[in-house]
Design goal:
Rossmann fold; Udp-n-acetylmuramoylalanyl-d-glutamate--2,6- Diaminopimelate Ligase, Chain: A, domain 1; 2 domains; 6-stranded antiparallel beta sheet; 4-stranded mixed beta sheet; 24% strand; elongated
Length: 218
C-alpha cells in the first residue's frame, strides 16, 4: 500500500467525452421544469461541450456559427427575430439547422415554438425541450451542470483521508490494508472522506477534487 497526494493523479485523469441529452431531464435539473416537446427517441444525442449556445446567427443564415455538441438555447430575442423573417425562408433555415449535429434545443420562458420549428425538428429527429425559466437562469444552470458532468475524472480503488486540509489517497491492491490504515489515521484525529472507491475530478483551472463514488441508481 502507498499513500499519494491527489495531485499525483493529475496526468492519469481521462475526459468523460459526452453526456446524452436525456441527462437534462434528470433530477439534478428538476428545478428548471424541463419538458419534452418532441423527438424523445433521439435523447441519446451526445452533448460534448459544457458551454451552451444561442442560435441567433444560425437563424439569420450563418450556419457555420453552430458548434457541434452544444445545447442550443432559444429565448425571447430569437423568437422576436424569427417573427421578422418570411415564413418560407424561416422554414428553409429550420430544416437546415435540424440536420446539423446539435444534441438538443431548449426553449425558455414558457414560449411557444415558432410555426414550423417542431415539424423541422421531427423531420431531423432533433429533440426539443421547454422550460418556464428565464434564459439567463437556464444558461447558468446548464453550464454548471454540464461542466460537472463533462469534467475529466477517474474512479480509483482507494481510500481518501483529509490530513491537515490536504486530501491524501491510500492506494493499493484489495486486501493490502487500506481500510486499516485509514482507521488508524481517523483515530489520530484526521477525517475519513471515502473508503474503497474515490472519484477524482480536474477543473478547467487545473485544480483537483476528490469525493466518494456515488453508486448508479438501479
Amino acid at each position: 500500500m502507498r499513500s499519494s497526494s491527489i495531485d499525483a493523479y493529475a496526468t492519469r485523469i481521462r475526459p468523460i467525452g459526452s453526456v446524452p441529452a436525456r441527462a437534462l431531464l434528470g433530477e439534478q435539473l428538476s428545478d428548471l421544469q424541463l419538458e419534452l416537446l418532441c423527438c424523445g427517441e433521439s435523447l441519446d444525442r451526445a452533448i460534448s461541450h459544457p458551454r451552451v449556445q444561442k442560435p441567433g446567427l444560425a437563424f439569420a443564415g450563418y450556419y457555420d456559427y453552430i458548434r457541434p455538441g452544444r445545447v442550443q438555447i432559444m429565448g425571447e430575442s430569437e423568437m422576436a427575430f424569427l417573427a421578422t423573417v418570411a415564413s418560407a425562408v424561416r422554414d428553409q433555415r429550420f430544416a437546415h439547422i435540424a440536420r446539423m449535429p446539435i444534441p438538443v434545443f431548449v426553449i425558455t420562458k414558457g414560449l411557444a415554438p415558432p410555426a414550423g420549428f417542431l415539424d423541422a425538428c421531427r423531420a431531423g429527429e432533433l429533440p426539443v425541450l421547454a422550460s418556464p425559466a428565464l434564459s439567463w437562469r437556464i444558461i447558468k444552470r446548464l453550464s454548471f451542470f454540464l461542466e460537472d458532468q463533462l469534467m475529466p475524472s477517474r474512479s480509483l480503488h482507494a481510500g481518501l483521508i483529509e490530513i491537515y486540509g490536504l486530501g491524501v489517497l491510500l492506494v493499493g491492491k484489495s486486501g493490502v490494508g487500506k481500510s486499516e490504515a485509514a482507521l488508524d489515521l481517523v483515530t489520530r484525529g484526521h477525517s475519513l472522506v471515502a473508503d474503497d472507491r474515490v472519484v477524482v475530478r480536474r477543473y478547467p483551472s487545473g485544480e483537483l477534487s476528490a469525493a466518494p463514488r456515488v453508486p448508479a441508481a438501479t
